[in-house]
Amino acid sequence: MGLFADLRDSVSAVTAKLFAGESEDPKRIGIYGPPNAGKTTLANRIARDWTGDAVGPESHIPHETRRARRKENVEIERDGHTVSIDIVDTPGVTTKVDYEEFLDHDMEKDEAVRRSREATEGVAEAMHWLREDVDGVIYVLDSTTDPFTQVNTMLIGIIESRDLPVLILANKTDLEGSNVQRIRNAFPQHETIELSALEGDNMDEVYDRIAEKFG
Questions:
Q1: 209 contacts 167 by C-beta, under 8 angstroms
Q2: Where is the G domain (predicted)?
Q3: With a threshold of 0.70, does the pTM exceed it?
Q4: Cβ 123 vs Cβ 94: under 8 Å
């Protein structure tokens, strides 16, 4: 009986470790929002603060992020507790990508058409990630613009239908015309945190809430 008991205990210990490892796998957190809300700036801020690396290039040109980019195993430590997440920086979701948007930035027509095609494919990819492959969402909005749009309402609805934890961030508070309360009024059912990802303002609170929401 002693041999069987020891064998049983060994198997139980190995099984416990396997399941513990699975439960500690990083959660895939998608960074979503409309184009030019500051998603990549935020993704880079988080990645640099906790890993020293960047996720992707930042630009004032719309749809600069045309494919989802992933930074794995970002460990955020708050109050002695470490939360491990994979950051998924997604393309800005919009109902229409017009190549003429790129012409306004001194691009040749062929390049503008290519970028618009890639951006359209990126929107489809972002929607797939949202419906199938993320465990939580950081939703980034430009606090200088009206948040009550068809796209934002649709995406928040999808997030809610999947019962995903979501943290809404009112970005660009360093700019004149920022109105965080307008975002809170648009989506009162969810917590909204203000920040400037570019300047790093209020990132401590952002990290606290990420740890609480997704840990």
A1: yes
A2: 28-172
A3: yes
A4: yes
